[in-house]
Amino acid sequence: MAVDEGLAEWVAEACAPLGAISRKRMFGGAALYCDGLAFAILAFDALWFKADAESDAAWDAIGAERFAVTRDGGKVQSINYRRAPDDVYDDADAMRDWAGLAIAASRRAPVKMRKT
Length: 116
What we know:
Blueprint: H1 5-15, E1 21-26, E2 29-34, E3 37-43, E4 46-50, H2 56-61, E5 66-70, E6 76-83, H3 92-108
Antiparallel strand pairs: 1-2, 2-3, 3-4, 4-6, 5-6
């Protein structure tokens, strides 16, 4: 799976007012960061925003699908990222609104300690 370069550039451009946007390749997709905090992923030709218990109601209200992958053996693995609504693909204000919600979820997430 290749990263949609146009989409990656659009997210970076639209979200620039929120902070420094960067990305890292990840499992055939990419993780997107704002000021070093992971807030979105690009995978399966779509944009997925980080969510948490506090923001889930907003995502549920628009019917945003949870990110899930079916592994070998049929096991489904899900992480709390939600599919971006269609309007973010052509509306910078909508992109920033939803990205802001995802960045807030990322700020609330517990800090993972690195193994030494």
